[in-house]
Amino acid sequence: MELSDYFRILRKSWIVIVAFTLIGTAGAAAITLLTTPKYAASTLVFVYVQSSGTVNELAQGSNFAQSQVKSYAEAVSTPRVLDNAIKSLRLDISAGELASSVSASAPLDTVNIEITVEDESPTDAASIANAVTASFGQVIEDITKPTNGAESQVSVSVLREAAVPSKPISPNTNVNLIIGALAGLIVGLASALLRQALDTRIRSERDVEAITDTPIIGGITFDPNAVKKPLIVQDDPHSVRAEAFRTLRTNLQFLDIEEGGRSFVVTSSVPSEGKTTTSANLAIALADAGARVVIVDGDMRRPKLASYLGLEGAVGLSDVLIARADLSDVLQPWGRGNLTVLPAGSIPPNPSELLGSRSMASTIRTLESEFDVVLIDLPPLLPVTDAAIVTKLTRGALLVVAAGRTHKGEFSGAIAALGDVGARVSGIIMTMMPTKGPDAYGYGRYGYGYGYSAQAPAPAVEEETPRTRRRSGPEWGGDRQKESS
Fold it and tell me: How many domains does the chain have?
């Protein structure tokens, strides 16, 4: 991943990261409050070898003390030293228990030893440190006595006695809080990265572009009221979502400048991605721009288009395909006259066979000859093969993908299903895109790669003579206009 991807993850999961950081800090604070404070008291002793005072003897004595001082420091925590301290203070602990609280250190190239005692009581820490130091001095002198009974030449002198400490050495509140916050931050970051790695849903155009090179020709933001008001272009033409459909319309006009029928299948990978709502609103937006549009409900399993548009759908495409009705008789005008609807009709037992029949191909060719744009709303690609079969008969598929709902595997499977039958994916339409956060969508973001922008103004609408029709794009309807002229 690039650096920008990490920043996007941080923006997306900042609440989780902050929560873990606060939890880590709170945990460290709780541990600090529950931990019994400990105090440390230390003494400093000086080990030297007595001599007659000559330079040679002083040097030899100093070298000898330096070479032995480390061994003397290790003797501090031995039972021989600690037993005497326990006895003098009348402590109710063993030498082994006391040894865990006593430590000694000897700085390099010195003859000094620092003896430190840790205890929950500051007074006891100082008392034990002084008692251990006194016992240590006596033991060193005893073990360094010559065998002939003469006095020991090694002496231990106390340079600093232990004082009662005023502040505990543990717990260190500041350090604990910092460690807790850092631990929580690390866990939060790891959680965010793991969540991103395990997230198989398509969240933004980045995820789409990682799967296919097919251009994204539009993005529709999420609207919780879309079920109640599916025809947003008609009901609220000045809304952001309505503008998004007009942007989609503009991009679709320049999607394919080759001559031929302008028929497109609108489908998705799985159900509930908003394909029917997208089909209806796109058809209305195209009709508003002056194009003669026919929208066909090719979903003969769960038809919804007629109910969305408020039309009677009992007779329609299925009846035409079995020659029970003429095409001209089942086409229903909608709105101001530029939009025509072909309902699904009766639900047949064999939708796939009907949609793949010669009659279907003939119907599409007829509609292409009479209308500027033909939009065919079909079932999702993964559950059934209807959309893949019909896409082969059209210019291509407009594949709808819902952000935050469609899985990457499902989207890849839909593209593969079209590729397996030699069908073409003309463009991707993203729906249910978030309006806030790092994956938020602005309706002016998408532009098609032929040099046209999603923000480009719609082509001018031409008023024609009675023998010609209006056209919404530089190509749509152009050939038929020439013929009628």
Answer: 3
Helix axes 3-12, 173-198, angle to 10 degrees: 110
C-alpha to C-alpha distance for 341 and 355, rounded to whole angstroms: 17
> Does 323 map to a domain?
yes
CB atoms within 10 A of CB 317: 30
d(CA 360, CA 354): 7
DSSP, collapsed to helix, strand or coil, labels residue 249 as helix
β-bridge partners, 427: 398
CA 153 from centre of chain = 73
Q: Which amino acid is at 434?
A: P
State the Cα–Cα distance between residues 65 and 155, nearest whole angstrom: 10
The Cα–Cα gap between 452 and 454 comes to 7
CATH number for the domain harbouring residue 144: 3.30.70.1130
The SS3 call for residue 325 is coil
Q: How many residues does the chain have?
A: 485
pTM (predicted TM-score) = 0.65
Return the residue matching tokens 């029928």: 261
> What is the DSSP secondary structure assignment for residue 77, as one 8-state letter?
G
Q: From 227, 226, 204, select the one nearest 216 (Cα to Cα).
A: 204
Considering the domain architecture, whether residues 281 and 180 belong to the same structural domain is answered as no
Q: DSSP E strands: which ranges in 36-94?
A: 39-49
Is 152 in the same domain as 250?
no
Joined together, the tokens standing for residue 26 give: 């709170």
Q: Cis omega (within 30 of 0) on the bond before 146?
A: no
How many C-alpha atoms does 291 have within 13 Å on its Cβ side?
A: 32
Handedness of CA 353, 356, 358, 361 (dihedral sign): positive
Token pair 């820490």 is found at 125
Query: 374 pLDDT band (50/70/90 cuts)?
Result: very high
Contact 336/224 with Cβ under 8 angstroms? no
Q: Over the stretch 71-114, which tens digit does the pLDDT of each residue have?
A: 888 889 999 999 999 999 999 999 999 999 999 998 887 888 99
